[in-house]
Amino acid sequence: MELFTNQVLAGIATGAIYACMALAVVMIYQAIDHLNFAQGEMAMFSTFVAWQLMQWGTPYWIAFVVVLIFSFIGGVVIERALFKPLAKAPVLTHVAGFIALFAIVNSVAGLTWDFTIKQFPSPFGSAPFLGSQLISTHQAGMIGVTLVLLILLFLFFRFTRVGLAMRAAAVMPESARLVGINTSWMIALGWGMAAAIGSIAGMLIAPVVFLEPNMMGGVLIYGFAAAVVGGLSSPLGAVIGGFLVGIFENLVGTYIPGVGNELKLPIALALIITVLVVKPHGLFGRTIVKRV
Amino acid sequence: MSTVQEVSSAPVVAAVPKKAMSLGPVASLVLLALLAITPFFVKNFIIFQMTMVLIYAIAVLALNILTGASGQFSLGQSAFYALGAYTSAILIEHAGMNYALTLPFAGIICFIAGFLFGLPALRLSGIYLALATFALAVAMPQLLKLGVFEHWTGGVQGLVVTKPDAPEIFASMGLKVSQDMWLYFFTLVVAIAIYIVSVNLLKSRSGRAMMSIRDNEIAASAMGVDVALYKTLAFGVSAGITGIAGGLGAIAVQFVAPDGYTIQLAIALFLGMVVGGVGWLPGSLAGALFIVFVPNIAEHVSKGLSGAVFGVILIFIIFLLPNGARQLAYGVQAMFSKMRR
């Protein structure tokens, strides 16, 4: 039983990483209706910027805020420069655009900061949390930040005019435009917010997985898995999905013989496919009814 | 102006008229002649690269049948490519089979695998399908490394495949045909056969059914098209052809290993399709040229920034030629007909 609780705790700790990333994935999906394959690389780049600022002697929280603003602006600029002109292009072209973005960001980061692993500081320290060996204060802090982020997003989407306008623009762009919402800028705003949330995820993940240009590869796949499990249209679902994927991954690794580390990933992916087949819109997603 | 709604309700792929899916007779013959003559004038390494172009062209063509004709996404083609490659390699090395005979087996096994994968994929569309196939592609190398199959697959080490010699008959006729040259022409024949079969498939009743699903699924089912059957069939056919390409790839590279078939291969094939023009079968060749040569060019421009150069080239293509090589070909055609007048 103790083993079980411990593994669940460890699962929640890793799940927090996935939840963070899934939140960013869902944000952008809400705004643009596509999965951004370059999301992880954008987050990685932001994290490197934070690292660079800290190398130059900036205190953690100032660097944190600067990077948040930088990422937000970066997200908006990418949308305006690259994806707005493609707005009418078929979905396939968008996916190709994401791949191009992925290649560019990864390569530029690799050239600027090279591929050696770097330590990234944690604002929460890494002492054991409440005497538990399994969860460090950093991981507890990560869970806390994820939850706070979720609440803020909920409040933003529920109670502010901009949040309402963004939801309207995502659900019914035509009607939103008719009531005077600038849907084009709502999309840019979505990109900016997704980039900012991604940068938070990146900065929280970096102390755990270490900083390097390819650090997001695995995390992004789990983030996708989490977002899909929770339903791509629900931020709450994404966070719960993140924790579920983390716990599931850990339990499977512990209790099913023959599942070593290398099989964890295929199992997470099998989970995506199973959830998609049973509930195509995820556990918390709303079903979209097609009109003929 | 936002187009979220249009994007979500529009078909995945812009409709391609049926006639536009293949190449005219004159252009086909010119292209064929070029493909047949070039190897006699270039070095062996370039012949090898041309063989790889043909192999990727087959794989891109397979994806084109799936996406261009039936409107389904796939980022998982590398999984079927790997399956085909391993089927051929295992049959050659463990069963001692002739390399040419392994290709049908690779095709059939991948057809079955694709058909089976197509069943759950039926419930998914658009981005969800892309994700599910993406998952398949990521999982494949890990599955190939599994200890259970190690006796057959060689585990992480992979398998070495013997390169076939040109048949004796050429030597007895006094012609010296190198291994690379022989393999190139062998691949060319297979590629042409697959191309002809594919063009005819798309012209047939089944092809029309697939395209009607692509253009409007609800209307297609109202017209009596068995949507489930044709969608899974498209998956199966596409996987089967990819498997044959994989088998050829294993023979040409003389080596199969799990890490040769990562998600990057799937992404490359996908890009090949976009660059070649979705739904235009001859574009597959242009797409394959892109896959084989553009990373090299990017590496040439700048070693450290090769990824960035690659990305920038890709963005240029997306912006300048959103319909890929098809647009270019049509542009040239329009120019010719103007000159004639």
Salient structural properties:
heterodimer, A: 292 residues, mainly alpha, two-stranded antiparallel sheet, 11 helices, 2% strand, globular, B: 341 residues, two-stranded antiparallel ribbon, 16 helices, 72% helix, 1% strand, disordered N terminus
> How many strand units of chain A?
2
Task: Point out poorly predicted stretches of chain B.
Answer: 1-10
The run of helices and strands of chain A is: HHHHEEHHHHHHH
- The gyration radius over C-alpha positions of chain A equals 19 Å
Mean pLDDT of chain B: 83
Task: Kindly provide the radius of gyration of chain B, computed on alpha-carbon positions and rounded to a whole number of angstroms.
Answer: 20 Å
Which stretches of chain A are poorly predicted, pLDDT < 50 over at least 5 residues? none
Question: How many alpha or pi helices of chain A?
Answer: 11
Order of helices and strands of chain B: HHHHHHHEHHHHHEHHHH
Mean pLDDT of chain A: 81
Overall helicity of chain B: over 70%
Largest binding interface between chains: A-B, 56 and 54 residues
What is the terminal-to-terminal distance of chain A? 53 Å
Assign the structural class of chain A, choosing from mainly alpha, mainly beta, alpha/beta, alpha+beta, or little secondary structure: mainly alpha
Give the termini distance of chain B in whole angstroms. 40 Å
Q: How would you characterize the largest beta sheet of chain B?
A: 2 strands, antiparallel
Strand percentage of chain B, roughly?
A: under 5%
Strand content of chain A: under 5%
- Percent helix of chain A, as a range, is over 70%
Spatial order of strands in the largest sheet of chain B: 1-2
- What is the 3D form of chain B? globular
